[in-house]
Structures are given as C-alpha cells and as structure tokens.
Amino acid sequence: MSALRIEDLAAGYRRGTVVSGVTTTVGSGGWLAVIGPNGSGKSTLLKALTGVVRHRGRVFVDGRALSSLSRRERARALGYAPQIPQLPLGLTVTDYVLLGRTPHLGVLGREGPSDVAVVGALLERLDLTRLADRPLTTLSGGEQQRAVLARALAQRAGVLLLDEPTTGLDVGHAQALLDLVDELRHELGTTVVTTLHDLTLAGQYAERLLLLDEGRVAAEGTPAEVLTPATLAERYSARVAVLRNADGSPVIAPTRPTM
C-alpha cells in the first residue's frame, strides 16, 4: 500500500508553465480523479509525476521522495498509462503486456509462471484473450488502449497513474476497466490517480476529485462537493443537472437552454 503526496508542484514545457501550485495527498488505496476543461493541465500533471516533463515541487510515495529512487524502484512505485502511447513494433499483445512485469523480474530477466498468470488474468478481464497473439499494430484504437492499460496494471505498482483510460472505449469496456481498477485498489491497496473527461464516471468511481482550471486547483473534495451545477457552469461554461443514482453517486446530465 502506497500513499502519494504532492507538494507545490509546477510543470510545463518550453512555451511556459502549464500547471502550478498543486498540493494534494492521496491516501493508500485511495482514488483521486483529476478533472477539468480542455487545456487545464490534467495530462501535464500526470506527466510531471512520472518525470516525463520538467517540474518543480516535490512528490513523495510512502514518504520517500521520487527523486531519490532508482529507476527500478520508481517503476515499482509508479505505474503509468499515457493517453497517447508509443507502441513498439513487432510485439504481440501478450509480449507487450508482459513488459509490465519487468520491474519484478529476477537477475536473469525471465518471466516466471506467476508473471504469466498475472498477464493472463488481465487479458481475460480486459477482453483481450482472443487477441493475445495478435501484433499490437493490427488492433483497433480501443483494443490498443486496453492493451496499454493491461501493461500498466501488470506492473502492480503501488501508485497507478492513468491518463484518460476510457478514451476510445465503448461504455461496456470502460466500465469493465474501471471496475478492474477498483478491484485492484481494494484487493492490493493500489493508490489510483486518473484523469477523466467523463464527469459521471469520475464521480462514480473516484473517492475524491481535483478540479484544475487554467493550471491551478479550482476545487477539491468529494464528488458531491465538486460536481455541483454552479461549479460546472463556472469552470466548464456548461449547463448541467446533477442527478443521483440509488447509491447517491452523481450522474451529470447536459441540459438544453430554455426557449
């Protein structure tokens, strides 16, 4: 189980700073969904946590600064699935997902039965078993996305960072994916940070939401505290009604203007 702490994080690119002043904590086994309008800095925040983009501030996993960890230690601490992955040529789905087990391999670097079992279970849960021997490049966009997520899940890192994991997935596969992430969170104590455009999914699966707007934290709290018509109107320029499922989880419904 791994807790994640972010202190005064700022990140960006050559053109300038994209996000700044982000401070938050995600407890062990917690789920934080980062939401916000397009261009608010959600993906940049996750890239900063992995070290892909330059950043200032500090990031800790279980009290240890990420900057102090070796590459292997960092791979065990953080698993990351980017929104737009670079897929290697020539690998089958199984071979690609097995790459997620690399941080756990012994000195010989060979996968054992337990590694193969982890990958097989993930392929089944993500509806990829029938595609196991197919080259990655022959898959559809949604199938490739599921393979990328399977690789990140196979890593079994203490903290799992997923950038728009439901992009390109139909509603059934999106739900199956998020259900699996939620199960891993409860079974293994995995700490989850996702970016999500779908506010209904964010509110139904995540325990807490962090709303970014123009690179800064505009709101943070439970889904009930953040997903209000007033906040969404202000930050998204959107007309919505917030409905409730039987369990109290939110459903964000767009509304037409009155004539």
UniProtKB/TrEMBL annotation:
Pfam families the record matches: ABC_tran
Sequence ranges assigned to domain ABC transporter in this UniProt record: 4-239
Keyword flag Protein transport: no
Protein name: ABC transporter ATP-binding protein
SMART domains: AAA (SM00382)
InterPro entries found in the cross-reference section: AAA+_ATPase, ABC_transporter-like_ATP-bd, ABC_transporter-like_CS, P-loop_NTPase
Any one Gene Ontology molecular-function term assigned to this protein's record: ATP binding
Keyword set, alphabetical order: ATP-binding, Nucleotide-binding, Translocase, Transport
